[in-house]
Amino acid sequence: MPQATAPLPLTVISGYLGAGKTTLVNHLLRHAAGRRLMVLVNDFGDLPIDADLIEREDGDMLTLANGCVCCSMGGDFYNALVDVLDMPERPDHLVIEASGVARPARIANIARAEPDLALDGVVTLVDAENVAAQLADDLVADSVTDQIAAADLLLVSKADLVSPHDLAALKDRLNAINPAPPVMTCISGAVPVDAVLGGIAPSQDAKPSPPHDHEHEEAYARWSHETSAPFDSDKLQQALTAFPDTVLRVKGIVFVTGRHGPLAIHRVGRRITIADAPSSTDRTSRLVAIGHRSGFDPALLTRLVDGALATPGPQRPDSTQDKPPS
Amino acid sequence: MTETKIFAARKIVTMDANQPEATHVAVRDGRILAVGAHADVSGWTDAAVDDRFADKVLMPGFVEGHCHLMAGGMWRFLYVGFQDRVDPDGKHWQGVGTIEAVLDRMKTADAELPEDEPLVAWGFDPIFLMDRRPDKRDFDTVSATRPIAVMHSNFHLMTVNSAALKLANYTADLDVDGIARDADGEPNGELQEVAAMFPVMRRLGIDFRALGRSPAGVTAFGQVCKRAGVTTAADLINDLPDEDVDELLRITARDDYPIRLASMLNAMTQTAVETGERALALQERSTDKLILGGVKIVTDGSIQGFTARLRWPGYYNGASNGIWNVAPEQLNGIVAELLSKGVPMHIHVNGDEAIAVAIDAVEAGLRRHAAPDHRTVLQHCQMADRAQFEKMKALGLCVNLFANHIFYFGDQHAALTIGPDRARRMDACRTALDLGVPMTIHSDAPVTPLGPLTTAWAAVNRLTASGRVLGEAERISVPEALHAITLGAAYSLHMDDRVGSVEVGKFADFTVLDDDPLGVDAGALRDIPVWGTVLGGDVHPV
Fold first, then answer.
1. pLDDT average, residue stretch A107-112
2. What CATH number did the domain enclosing A312 receive?
3. What are the residues whose beta carbons fall under 8 Å from the beta carbon of B72, sequence distance 6 or more?
């Protein structure tokens, strides 16, 4: 039965057959960095999890040593979802690996409707090598197009197998189908976990980012910002909207004038959600962002956010930094 | 124990060409010992003649080749459909034709229900309630406090009352596809598709899968079958975990369980290799009354839900093409693997594009693996054209056509989904038979009511709910329709060696009718009362 707890963030991983969904799921499970992820897959027979990472396997459920759980949905996705929501101890974040022909918008719609779920985002993987053929195949072109159109973030996989010229052309083609989402590229699912999964807003006792794989981290940059001055909620929304497309995700806990409790803000791609956050004694607003290093301008983000304070003016930023890759 | 019985009947319609009619059948050890005139059977036994069926007509027990166990458990909820139905306990539920009648029935149920239980109804079909589309305000008059959910007959929509909307926290500012709104922008109670229905179903504990899995549901399903004269029924998708198989074995083994149940493994929740291995392992657990080892693959969705995959020119109303549940290339892999292992397959295909993809998958699989007598069944197969039936014949495919659709949805298909011309050739029983494709017909219960005589009636008459004939050229004769609901269905389940006709050696499974289906007017086929059944020689009156 429904519980009076914070809604469970849900990320949908979509993409046609062979786009690398399983590889990405495996990467997320290995780099969950303290989050207890629950991943619903169609079938974990194909998931290449090393035996030493598996704590126990119990029918449809695979529990990893790092606290993450991978669960096979069996015949009924909705029952699997009910089971997750009714768990006595819910995970921190739910990831659904949609089937290769699933319409991710339909799954995302459940997270919008269900009060105990919060849609974190739809991440669609696109196979750099084969997507052109898929879009030319009448049988599946509409499914693939639908997956691209529903995405908050697009992740082009097998990026190393095509030329930079073809990759640029592919990005244009994807943005012609769906202009909104930033396009990331990856090889073997290697992307920063905090770009793919939002969900957990930064908190006071947030641990420093765990070590990332260097080869893919070099392409990304982070920004964080704190202030004790309250924001104007409309202006903040405008500021977030104005963040450039190099920014993949923004999340934060913020205080605004006219409300006592904090708000959780969340931007994935171009979609912004603002919701109540659990109350806190600390009245500091905190924001973090991750984006493509190329063209990432932390000073611009700070300037935009400062302009959204309730009483703008020459504010001394409490702290702003562009974290170096760790 | 060897007990021998002789049943005498007014007439036995055997479906055996060597002896189409008989009056006596002798039964030993649950099987048919002899059939014919009294003199043909008395040489085997001096058992007294049981003449309780002296004024009845016996047929081979009807075989329903495509339905779902849920058809029994649904009756836990209140029936508010437009058509008459009979529940597992034999109660006749009259169809409700006006909003007032629906609400009256619900008010009566509300008064009898414990205070803390939600009121859940099913079978609702507002298109038949002509005047207007009911919404939450109507159901608020049943109860302002008790959550109410009314499932529509297509299972894709539900209408709920204000108390249920509140439970799911549905408010005007919620931006979700599928939550219908009134003129003021408030949710009006109609919820479309699973995403919008999910929060309400979860909070009211509506779980269709559980309805099919629970012992009470499986037992009720047996009763629903018996009342329709069905002695063998195929449950056309089941995850079949070991604990469910144990339960099914236990329930079906009971002497009072009145049917043989064939249950098809869901082939889409594991790899093709795993599916094949699991199906073969399940086959080993089969008994005379629980038949395992076949699998179900679902390719597209439904035509009336606009989720079936159509070839050009697509949907009549311009809706975009439907969805795949498995990608075509995945289907190729599954089909090839299962053909190589000899696992019987039932492939759900509604639209003609899905049919083409399934035919191609079987053809490609057969080029790689010799699969003698595979009898892969295209289930529903509603939009197949003549060329596709030719391919089916050439490839050894069978077809199970959804004849009930002509009656229940035919008007909508002509007006809305696929247009008049393609609607006329839907569920093309005549073409299938003319081209020699092994053919059966089905109800897909609980989508339409279980009742092989009604399904036969639909294939013979092709009348729609509005009373017009849809596709006269695809009509079949009464004997052909009776073959489809007995031997035809048995063949599609690889069970024609055991059931489907009254022949020596087969199970003594009979449908007992009050009248002769070959003697009544074709339009009255569905009105023949079912007296009961005989299963393995044991008599089960309704």
1. 92
2. 3.30.1220.10
3. B88, B211, B212, B217, B218, B219, B220, B221, B222, B223, B224
